[in-house]
Write a structure and sequence with these properties.
Number of domains: 1
CATH architecture: Beta Barrel
Protein name: PorV/PorQ family protein
Radius of gyration: 24 Å
Helix content: 10-25%
Keywords: Signal
Organism: Bernardetia litoralis (strain ATCC 23117 / DSM 6794 / NBRC 15988 / NCIMB 1366 / Fx l1 / Sio-4) (Flexibacter litoralis)
Number of strands: 17
Structural class: mainly beta
Order of helices and strands: HHHEEEEEEEEHEEEEEEEEEH
Number of helices: 5
Distance between the termini: 64 Å
Largest sheet: 14 strands, antiparallel, barrel
Strand content: over 45%
Length: 399
């Protein structure tokens, strides 16, 4: 049997070539002026499952959180509607990271989703007027403000299939059998809003595209974020800081435009189940490529940097889950100027209770990386139109 059809391969190659062309355009034009780590709050991830597996779901994401990891995976959800919530506190509660997402099936081949992400630091002291006009310290003049970053993502996914006639051979004859290869495509249109009290605001717009497919049991995915570059227009309230900055010798900011360059993630995963279908194991691999200059990653260069991640998930009857992952490999310089590698191990558990899915993850377990550990909790609620109608009927009967 000729398993990998030339037409199927051509479709995959054409999609990869399209992404490469779109990525190369903004990267080559603005790479020198684009800052590193722009909109980096969108690189954290959503959902305790994906974070426990070190951000490898690009190939297997199949629920509402796929809108973030790879919108193509939205079509693989088995439920008509999904709602997900997540909360994380970072740096001892100084920073809060929140996510909410909702997805709905239009029909068997089309699905939409809407997601909101917020990363913020609240109650930052505003010490501009700590010292009054007489030179005295007056703590009553100290106010507070919040620095927050928001992302609003509108997602659409569509399922397709390639019907290909392939040669099949038996002992008696050779014939052509028609086979279907699934291809899932997805895209995000996202609006970015950032604010720092009364001092600065910005608005930006970007586009992500993704694809998932499956060859036998191998699941393959590709996700291209900020495919044409995401442009954030910053507006500064110079009057709010002019006097203080002038007295302290700081530069007064002016309105500017910040560009977030594309990043591409490739993913491969392989699920396996026992013959009685009670136990399952899935291994996953991700490879993220950034184009904003040399980063502290395993493979780094002036044009691109590559960061690998690994994840594993075991389950019992698709009800109880154990997860683990490793990523964030970085080379650090010790006090004696020697260099060593650090990594970030993550672990998590999950449980399905009727229509509810509860997931937990601990990131950077055992403090192996330079970043502190964090506890991640997320909840998913799965429901369909029949359940909604039943709730309506129950409500009407109770009146």
């Amino acid at each position: 049997m000729n398993f990998t059809s030339s037409l199927y391969t051509q479709v995959i190659v054409a999609f990869l070539a399209l992404i490469a062309g779109l990525v190369a355009a903004p990267s080559s034009v603005v790479a020198q002026d684009a800052p590193k780590y722009s909109n980096e709050f969108l690189a954290i991830g959503v959902g305790a499952r994906g974070l426990a597996m070190s951000g490898t779901p690009v190939s297997f994401a199949d629920d509402v959180t796929a809108a973030y990891w790879n919108p193509a995976g939205l079509l693989r959800s088995k439920d008509q509607y999904e709602l997900s919530l997540m909360h994380v506190s970072y740096f001892g509660g100084i920073a809060n990271y929140d996510y909410a997402g909702f997805s709905a099936a239009i029909d068997s081949t089309n699905r939409i989703a809407f997601s909101v992400i917020r990363f913020g630091i609240d109650d930052i002291p505003d010490t501009r007027f700590l010292i009054d006009e007489n030179g005295n310290v007056d703590y009553n003049n100290v106010g507070s403000f919040a620095e927050a970053s928001y992302a609003f993502m509108f997602s659409y996914a569509r399922a397709m299939s390639l019907k290909i006639k392939e040669r099949e051979a038996t002992d008696e004859k050779e014939y052509r059998a028609e086979k279907k290869y699934p291809i899932y495509l997805g895209a995000n249109a996202k609006v970015i809003h950032r604010s720092a009290g009364i001092f600065a605001t910005s608005w930006g717009f970007g586009v992500d595209v993704g694809m998932q497919t499956q060859i036998k049991n191998w699941q393959i995915g590709i996700m291209a974020r900020d495919i044409t570059g995401t442009y954030n227009a910053y507006s500064f309230n110079s009057d709010a800081v002019r006097e203080t900055f002038s007295n302290t010798g700081n530069e007064i900011p002016t309105n500017s435009l910040e560009v977030t360059l594309p990043r591409v993630t490739l993913g491969v995963s392989y699920p396996w189940r026992t013959k009685n279908q009670q136990f399952g194991v899935m291994g996953s691999l991700g490879l993220e490529t950034t184009f904003d200059g040399k980063r502290n990653t395993v493979i780094k260069g002036d044009f691109a940097s590559l960061a690998p991640t690994f994840g594993v998930e075991a389950d019992y009857k698709n009800i109880i889950y154990l997860r683990g992952g490793i990523g964030n490999f970085q080379q650090v310089t010790d006090f004696d100027r020697s260099k060593s590698w650090t990594y970030q191990p993550n672990f998590g558990v999950g449980i399905v209770i009727k229509q509810f899915v509860i997931d937990y993850a601990i990131t950077n377990a055992f403090d192996q990386s330079i970043v502190p550990y964090s506890h991640v909790f997320s909840l998913r609620f799965l429901f369909n139109q029949q359940q909604i109608n039943a709730l309506k009927a129950s409500s009407q009967n109770g009146q």
